[in-house]
Specification:
The protein is built from twelve helices and eleven strands. Strand 3 and strand 4 form a beta hairpin. It has a five-stranded mixed β-sheet with strand order 8-7-5-6-11, with helices on both faces. The relative contact order is 0.16. It is α+β, with helices and mostly antiparallel strands and about 325 residues long. It starts with about 25 loop residues before the first helix and ends in a 12-residue tail after the last helix.
Length: about 325
């Protein structure tokens, strides 16, 4: 940061330098899931009726929020007393569901997400979890600019930032739901029991099974799980063993080119996921979309230190992930 020494009242001039390792695209393609694989798997992602959990072939969605799905008008009417508490218009429409689908179908990203959930939900500490003790992992996603300089511009409220910005999915937090809370919602408890029975019948009786709630930050409400995309979460033995080994990540600095290790943890797994998505400059993973004003407002709210949940978890993410180093200090 340079300042004008001849004018003590001048505003500091901040220069941002964005450094990208020259091998980033080659390294990304070496491990990334192919677009052909993701296209072929799209039909395996099924939507269930919000009210009765029937798998839907031709779902009908709420015309206002477009994030709740029903098998019939009857089920939609039955669910309305609950759904009206969280129903609100959204700019991205059902596009958020499509992004969540591509995230959930990606074996590499889902594998790291499962390891993070294993740590945060305590599966290594209690062998009963996922068998006779249910678990739910809430996964908060948001859309951020794919260019970190645009993120900085929004954070600093720079009026020169373009109105239309390419965004990308980012996973901001994993939050475990205590089993006692699940017992207070009989419908969700029944969904878990059905998922547990399904995987038992498929030959995975020795693997933990839980539920995963994907929540879009722009639709946040007190009971966000009611507008979440919820699915069964099967933890294969291979992923559980991977978490038990706790082998550290090996990463390379874009500035110095030197390799360093990072201890594995839930937060380190999220950082790997987010960096991997950021490296996908050609949108091979189908996790990029145009940012909405609500997406941008979450970043503005974080810079204003507003005490809203989406803003808080973004600030926490900025403090732990390397790409955001020192950005928070620019507003102080």
């Amino acid at each position: 940061m340079n300042t004008d020494s001849n004018n003590s009242s001048a505003n500091p001039k901040v220069i941002h330098i964005n450094v990208v390792h020259p091998d980033v695209e080659k390294d990304f393609r070496a491990v990334a899931t192919s677009s052909e694989y993701l296209k072929a798997k799209k039909k395996q992602f099924h939507i269930q009726c919000t009210q009765c959990q029937t798998t839907l072939e031709k779902p009908r969605k709420c015309s206002k929020c477009k994030s709740s799905w029903y098998c019939s008008e009857e089920c939609q009417k039955k669910n309305w007393p609950i759904h009206k508490l969280v129903c609100r218009e959204v700019e991205r429409s059902s596009g958020a569901v499509k992004l969540i689908r591509m995230l959930a179908l990606n074996p590499l990203l889902l594998g790291f997400l499962k390891v993070g959930i294993i740590f945060d939900c305590g599966l290594l500490d209690n062998p009963r979890i996922g068998f006779d003790v249910p678990f739910v992992a809430r996964v908060d996603i948001a859309i951020e600019p794919s260019n970190i300089l645009d993120f900085i511009g929004l954070y600093l409220d720079d009026k020169t930032v373009a109105e239309k910005l390419q965004g990308m999915v980012q996973v901001n937090a994993i939050t475990p739901c205590h089993p006692s809370l699940l017992h207070r919602t009989p419908t969700r408890l029944q969904v878990w029991r059905e998922q547990r029975a399904k995987y038992n019948a498929d030959g995975y009786a020795k693997d933990p099974v839980g539920l995963i709630d994907f929540v879009d930050g722009t639709t946040y409400a007190k009971d966000s799980w009611q507008s979440a995309v919820t699915g069964g979460l099967h933890i294969p033995t291979s992923v559980l063993d991977w978490a038990k080994k706790r082998e550290p990540f090996k990463r390379v600095s874009a500035v110095t080119g030197t390799w360093f290790t990072q201890p594995i943890s839930a937060m380190a797994c999220l950082e790997y996921i987010n960096v991997h998505i950021r490296e996908d400059i050609r949108n091979q993973l189908y996790l990029r979309t145009e940012m909405t004003e609500k997406d941008k407002e979450i970043i503005h709210a974080a810079s204003r230190n507003e005490d809203t949940y989406p803003a808080r978890i973004l600030k926490e993410k900025m403090r732990r992930e390397c790409v955001y180093a020192n950005i928070e200090h620019l507003t102080q």
